[in-house]
Every structure is written in structure tokens, then in C-alpha cells.
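Support reply, case 0932

Customer input (verbatim):
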Amino acid sequence: MIKVTKVTENWQLAGVYYVRTEGMCKGFNIPLNVEFSDDGEHRDYSVLTVDGFPVGTCRINLLSEKLAKIERVCILETHRGQSLGKKLIEETEKRLQVQGITKIEIHSRDKAVGFYEKLGYTADFNRVEQGFFPEVYMEKELN
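Our regenerated output:
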């Protein structure tokens, strides 16, 4: 069973950290202190589980009453190509829409731009940040 859940329990947060450690730290050689440097209690997370096991996550940063940024999107490599990333983003968008959010920003890895474009996001290639990999600014208006 595939489920996307708003993180409210410590065990769910442990799942988030597991996915980010495996997917981002080990997958892209991002040091732990960098990957988790700006995590705090003010953050909001979604965790995607398959049969109760965490395989995907994203973090939500509310920038204003109507604007949110989806950050730290990660699906474990073993579970990519199964439309789980799509489900994670779509369910997170629904939750944000219920909260009154009308616009979402994402800074996408350059290699994932096509994935987000299929979900209705628009890339601005004039706004690219360089870190461990190039990140392209993307946005989407919610209906």
C-alpha cells in the first residue's frame, strides 16, 4: 500500500531522515551537516511509504499566506520509476491547497526539470543556483 502522510510523529520523522540520508547524503555525496543544516521545528514534512516503509519525502516551507516552497524532494533510488515522486508531489500539493496556498516554488535539480514540467511546473532558466548540482527555479499556480 502506497501512502503519503503529513509527518506528525517521531517515527515518521525518522523515516524522513532515513530517506534523505540514503538518497541525498549517500546518493549525491552531500555531507550530513549540510543536508540537515537548516532543518528545524518550523518545518513541515510529507513522507511517502510503501507497505509501511519510508521510500520518499519532501519538506514544505511556508513562505507567505499563499506561497509555499517544496524542498528536499527525494525518492529512494530503489523505488524510482514507479510514479511515486508524482504521487508525493500531487498529494503534497493537495494538502497545501487545503491550507490556502495558491502558488508553489521548487528548486529542481537540473536533471529533474522534465519531471516537474510534466506536473505543471514552469522552469526559469535565468534563475539557476549552483550547489552540489545546478538547481533551477520552478513554480506552479494551483487552481
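We compared this against your earlier run and they match. Two observations from our side: Strands lie at 2-6, 44-50, 53-62, 67-75, 103-109, 122-130, 134-141. The chain is about 30% helix and 40% strand. Please reopen the case if you see a mismatch on your end.
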